[in-house]
Amino acid sequence: MRFVYGHNLRTLRGPQKGNWRGDEIGYRSLHTWVTKNKEKTGVCTGCERERYTEWANVSGVYLRDLDDFAELCTECHWELDHGWDGEFD
Ligand SMILES: [Zn+2]
After folding, report:
1. What is the DSSP letter of 71?
2. Where in 14-67 does DSSP place strands (E)?
3. Which residue, 17, 26, 45, 76, has most beta carbons within 10 Å?
């Protein structure tokens, strides 16, 4: 569903590649931006298992920085959101 959402958003906004207006963009759009600009490997960065992954914001402040997003499985993403110290084991 996330992909479909991103597709619809892109259609609505038209070909405005690189036209970023940070303050008006919520984290949902940021996720769309990451999805478009960062390739998924299908391997979780946290546990290094090949499984369903999603982009997780590392800093928690949603920087428009691809390095601020880690590809994590739902388990590791949960850990991140619930007291992960930012270091992988
Ligand atoms: Zn994981």
Report:
1. E
2. 53-57
3. 76
SS3 content of the chain, % helix, strand, coil (to 5): 40, 15, 45
The candidate with the shortest Cα–Cα distance to 57, out of 28, 36, 37, is 28
Q: What predicted TM-score, i.e. pTM, was given to this entire model?
A: 0.62
In this structure, what are the phi and psi dihedrals at residue 61, rounded to the nearest 5 degrees?
Answer: -110, 5
Measured from the Cβ of residue 57, the count of other Cβ atoms closer than 10 Å reads 19
Q: Tell me, in angstroms, the distance from the centre of ligand 1 to residue 75's CA.
A: 6
More confident residue, 11 or 46: 46
Ligand 1 center–CA 79 separation, angstroms: 9
The tens digit of pLDDT for each residue in 41-72 reads: 999 999 999 999 999 988 888 888 999 999 99
pLDDT at 12: 43
Angle between helices 2-13 and 27-37 (to 10 degrees): 90
